[in-house]
Design goal:
- This protein is of the alpha+beta class.
- Helix content is 56%, strand content 10%.
- It has helices spanning 15-31, 36-42, 46-51, 55-63, 71-92, 94-115, 127-140, 163-180, 193-210; strands spanning 2-7, 145-152, 155-162, 237-238.
- The longest helix is centred in the middle third of the chain and has 22 residues, at 71-92.
Length: 239
């Protein structure tokens, strides 16, 4: 199930979300000019955190957060950030949202390091920080409608599902994938699933702190008319 957009307009231009997306793209382009050794120096390596921690290693918590492995990696991350980031930024305000995003990324990285403290495989990507945004969105807008593409063999359907269904399924997938790989997660490359889990849980637990004192607008009505073949109470919409 691939989300395409949410039916939840924000009240103001999400300048921080747009800036984060721009920085990620610029850093990815810059990466293409670097050697593997230079990229490794900017990535977060769990072994260095647990055995050789210093200021340079501490800075990789943030530099690695804006690096990506390939076009698919950055494309998927930026899609999720664009869909869900604007409303979380709207609920928090720009400055709080910056702090929330960066701390989500740090919490995500620490979660992966806790599970794989001795691996020398570098960690890169905005996924952990974005997972925090997803956790925050789930708690703030559980019933917001997400237009998603469902691919089943040769059939492609567009459906509108509540955020709690889409993001709940996403987290369940991460959870079972992570614990299925427990014990071998640090031995091979691939997806740092425990970073996703840690970032998401951090978002769930802290989003209310970052929205204290701010008035939150409920999700707006759909921006287009949809026929619901199964009645007005159906939880999904088939387009």
């Amino acid at each position: 199930m691939l989300p395409l957009r949410d039916v939840n307009p924000s009240r103001r231009v999400p300048v921080v979300t747009i800036t984060f997306i721009a920085i990620n793209i610029l850093v990815f382009l810059y990466q293409q000019t670097l050697s593997e050794e230079e990229q490794y120096a900017l990535a977060l390596v769990p072994f260095q955190v647990t055995h050789r921690f210093n200021l340079d290693v501490a800075l990789t918590f943030f530099s690695s957060m804006f690096m990506h492995a390939n076009l698919l990696h950055i494309g998927g991350n930026m899609l999720y950030l664009w869909i869900f980031g604007d409303n979380v930024e709207d609920a928090m305000g720009h400055v709080r949202y910056i702090l929330f995003y960066l701390l989500s990324g740090v919490a995500a990285a620490l979660s992966q390091i806790l599970v794989t403290p001795n691996t020398r495989i570098p960690m890169i990507g905005a996924s952990g920080a974005i997972a925090g945004v997803l956790g925050g969105y789930l708690l703030l807008y559980p019933n917001a409608r997400i237009l998603s593409m469902v691919i089943m063999f040769y059939f492609i359907r567009l459906v509108e599902v509540p955020a709690y269904i889409l993001l709940g399924l996403w987290f369940i997938l991460q959870f079972f994938t992570g614990f299925a790989s427990f014990g071998t997660a640090g031995e091979t490359g691939g997806v740092a699933v425990f970073a996703h889990i840690g970032g998401f849980v951090f978002g769930l637990l802290t989003v209310k702190l970052f929205t204290l004192g701010r008035r939150r607008r409920p999700p707006g009505p759909p921006s287009y008319e949809v026929i619901r073949p199964w009645g007005e109470d159906a939880w999904w919409r088939d387009l």
